[in-house]
Design a protein that fits this description.
This protein is of the alpha+beta class. It contains nine helices and four strands, in the order H-H-E-E-E-H-E-H-H-H-H-H-H. It has one domain: Nucleotidyltransferase, domain 5, CATH 3.30.420.100. Helices cover about 45% and strands about 10% of the residues. Strand 2 and strand 3 form a beta hairpin.
Amino acid sequence: MARGASYKVPLRRRREGKTNYYRRYRMVKSGQKLRAVVRRTNNYVVVQIMEFAPKGDLTKVAVHSKFLSKFGWKGDYNNSSAAYLTGLIAGLKAVKMGITKVILDIGLHRPVKGCRIFAAVKGLRDAGVDVPVSDEVLPSDDRIRGEHIARYAEALVAKSEDKFRTLFSKYLERGLDPRDLPKHFDEVKANIIKAFSGG
């Protein structure tokens, strides 16, 4: 460990790899109080709308991708499709509360073009929340709908059905053929929009 009179021990959350304080400071200085906090784990995606407050941030909206099962989702909870739908729900909830603009907070995640973080952002934007990011970093509609997964599943089943059943075991356990993922995505998206439109 570093030693010396001028050495400062980093703040605990920085040591734990949870908070980039320089980035957070810049967001506070921007004057925009609300931010979309998008986080992903090995299994899930979480989208929150947070408000800066001196004594601790206030959570305005929080949506976990596990919540998608309430709308009939049978796919993975951490892929691009799930990230988009989670962002869509968070955005629809935010709009109902009168929230129309936020800044993006990706924490320590790397901003990779087309990644799940930006899939969630696309969901927020499609719900009517203004999130200032370049359109170039957002994933394509084909990727959001899971068409790449469906194509891979189609090729795999022709090559080795055993491998297909092993790799997509979770999908099959939930009653979803991964080749039907784009159609399933459209159905779940329609269910979400209908639920929030009061239809």
